[in-house]
Structure formats: C-alpha cells, structure tokens
Amino acid sequence: MLDEYLRSRSGRQDSSTTPIAIIDGGLATRLETLGQDLSGSLWSAALLKDETLEGRPPRSRHEAPQGCAVIAQAHLDFLRAGAEVIGTCNYQTSLETFSRAGIADTEGRRLMLRAIDVAQSARKVACSTRAGRTHVPRPLIALSLGPYGASLSNGAEYTGCYPSPSDPSQEIAFDQLVEFHRNRLEEIAFDHLVEFHRNRLEVFAASAQHWSLIDLIAFETIPRLDEIRAIRSALSQVWQRHKDEGSWSKKPCLFSCVFPEEGLRLPFPQGRRSETLCECRDILEASFSQEKAGDWSGDAIGMNCTKPHLIPLLVDRFTQAMKERRARRAAATQPEDKKHLFLYPDGGKVWDGQARQWRAWAQPTEAGFANWAQQLLESAKSAIESGVWAGVWLGGCCNVGIDDIQALSLLVSREARSA
C-alpha cells in the first residue's frame, strides 16, 4: 500500500527515486486550537461520545462544531494543509481505557470504530474537492494506536514504566513513575502486553467494513523494545484468526518509537548499557524479522513525540543500522523489500502528565525550532541519499499544527520541483 501510494503520487511506475510524502500533525493540538477541552482521561477520544452534530454542518456561522464533527474538521484541516495521511482518533482508545471512564465494552467498541467513520467522512470531503487533479491519489487513513502506557492516561508512554495491572501504582502520577520503577515494583507481564494489543486490534479486525477503510496501522510512541515484540505477537494471532476470511487481508504496519532522552535511547529498559546504534539494530530486528510463516512483520519504522533536534542523529543511526541489516540479509541470500521511514517529531514542548499540560522545554535549540519544517526536510534528504529506504514520510506530533504542516508541504513540493 505504501509503495503503491508513492508511485501513484509521483506518476512513476518504478522505484528509481525515494519520494517524500506528508502526514498530519498533532490531532489533539488541532482540536485544542478549535476550542476543545481535552483535559480528561480520555483525551481526544472523549469527543467521540458526542455525535450530535455528526453528518451536518453548523446551523450558523456562530455555532462551532462539536464532538465527531470537530474531529472531522481537524482531519480535513490537515488534509487541506497538504497532509496525505490522517491518523484516526484512536491513540488512547482501548476497552480498558473506556472501562476506567465508566464506559461499557459494547459502547467502547462502538466509539473505537466511530473514529474510523469520522476519518473516512473527512477523506470523502477532501477527495470531492480534488476531482480532476492528476497524480493526487486518495489520502490514506492510518489507524493510530498508542502503546499500553497511553491507556493509563498518566504519561507512562514517555517513561516505559508499566506496572502490573494488579498493582495500585497503575494510577500513579507521571513525575513518580521513574522512581517507582527504580524500586522494582512488579512489572507488567509480556503476555499481558500481547493480550492488550490483541484485544484492541480485534475490535477493528472483527468489523469488515471498518477494516477495509484502514490503509495503515500506526503503532505510535512505543517506549519499550519488548512492546514491539508483543505487538508483533498480537498481530500474528489476529492474522491466524482471520486469514481464512475471504475479504480479510493484512495491513501495512508502522512501529514508531519515542526517544525522550538526550541519550537517544528508548526509555525502557532502564540502565541498559549499549550504544544508540545497537538499540537501533534491535528495534529493526524486532519490527521486521520473520521467524516463521504467518508472522506479521512491519513495513515502516518511525520516531514520534521526540524533540526535533534529536531527529538528525536518530536518522543517521537508523540508516546505518538499516544498511547493515540489508547487507547481512543479502549475504545470507535473504533479501527483503525496502522499508519506509516516518519522521514526525513534536513541537519542542514537554508533557507534564501530573498537571496535564505542556510546558516549555528547558533546553531549546539555538534556532528555537523556528526552522522546524526545514530541519525535518534536511533529515529526510539525508535518509533518501542513503538509498536504503523505500520512502520517507514527514509530519508532526504534539504541538505541531496546521501552519507547520502547510509549511512542510510547501517545502517538500518546492524540493520535488527543483529535483
């Protein structure tokens, strides 16, 4: 799907060039800009409960859209700004998350699927305005799924500290998570991580209508190496369950990690002594290896919710690790298709999970992130020159808004014209 999209976008039928495509920015950021209060434990997903205005425009210019309608508006705003991929409002959604908010499983499933319907409605509107334009393929819908830590609604995805579900520290505040981890409280079991991701995936896999609308499954802000392996296991179990259904097929998968520390390493495992490059090798292996037939491997690797100034070095390290991986596999006569690279850093602020607000970062870069789009494009060009990636997809995460995506889209278009 990703290769096909980039070929249709460029009007070429070969892979002699590595295109750059644009994904959206921070959905929650845009929703807050549109006047939404997302301070609750469900974050953006709380808006899925209100379908009052779904399917109709505001009655007057003074009436602001609400609920599902404002989510659709945010998606459409990103598409009009140049985004070619929109992520559904599912980052924190899971049956466990909704259960903690007092929402029954049946209703939770309905809300999770509704997010796909909302994204599809925005895509339809965007496509209706593009009629007759050549080399402008239909935008892609990415099923946006956060890690287990996101379901805890306490910032755990930035620390990788996952207490056991039976441990009362599940509800602990963000600023105390690392200290609790140092005290070696009971860690979540690998099997529970697999179960969490399998159960959530099954909500979407069980609905043929909604599954058909998904172009990419984006597992985002992953802070742990073992969680990538757990997701892979969950995917393979879902595949085994549905593979004999005539209309059912695997979807491309993105594994996007978070690197919140200056050491450029996943926050978990703590205290591990290894170079960044070694960890990049491990991440690639966990994401793409296939030990047996039926394994559902990834199609793309990425980094999100990571400070912009860390992206260039991470791109260099992942590119070097990918070069080594491809050389090893070629020598063993086990070549694999090129993978895609997704880069969507945040806008430079730091999330305070206890106060539930964004704070200015204590160590801003020299440019103060004023050249956010240009810096990201330079990283993409560096990745392209390596020749090891099938495509590079650029966008943003938290605190990256419409103007940022529009600036990025214009830069990429200008770069393509001058090539």
From TrEMBL:
<dbReference type="GO" id="GO:0033528">
    <property type="term" value="P:S-methylmethionine cycle"/>
</dbReference>
<feature type="binding site">
    <location>
        <position position="305"/>
    </location>
    <ligand>
        <name>Zn(2+)</name>
    </ligand>
</feature>
<dbReference type="GO" id="GO:0032259">
    <property type="term" value="P:methylation"/>
</dbReference>
<dbReference type="Pfam" id="PF02574">
    <property type="entry name" value="S-methyl_trans"/>
</dbReference>
<keyword id="KW-0489">Methyltransferase</keyword>
<dbReference type="GO" id="GO:0009086">
    <property type="term" value="P:methionine biosynthetic process"/>
</dbReference>
<dbReference type="GO" id="GO:0046872">
    <property type="term" value="F:metal ion binding"/>
</dbReference>
<protein>
    <submittedName>
        <fullName>Homocysteine S-methyltransferase</fullName>
    </submittedName>
</protein>
<dbReference type="InterPro" id="IPR003726">
    <property type="entry name" value="HCY_dom"/>
</dbReference>
<feature type="domain" description="Hcy-binding">
    <location>
        <begin position="9"/>
        <end position="412"/>
    </location>
</feature>
<feature type="binding site">
    <location>
        <position position="397"/>
    </location>
    <ligand>
        <name>Zn(2+)</name>
    </ligand>
</feature>
<keyword id="KW-0808">Transferase</keyword>
<feature type="binding site">
    <location>
        <position position="398"/>
    </location>
    <ligand>
        <name>Zn(2+)</name>
    </ligand>
</feature>
<keyword id="KW-0862">Zinc</keyword>
<keyword id="KW-0479">Metal-binding</keyword>
<dbReference type="InterPro" id="IPR051486">
    <property type="entry name" value="Hcy_S-methyltransferase"/>
</dbReference>
<dbReference type="GO" id="GO:0008898">
    <property type="term" value="F:S-adenosylmethionine-homocysteine S-methyltransferase activity"/>
</dbReference>
<dbReference type="InterPro" id="IPR036589">
    <property type="entry name" value="HCY_dom_sf"/>
</dbReference>
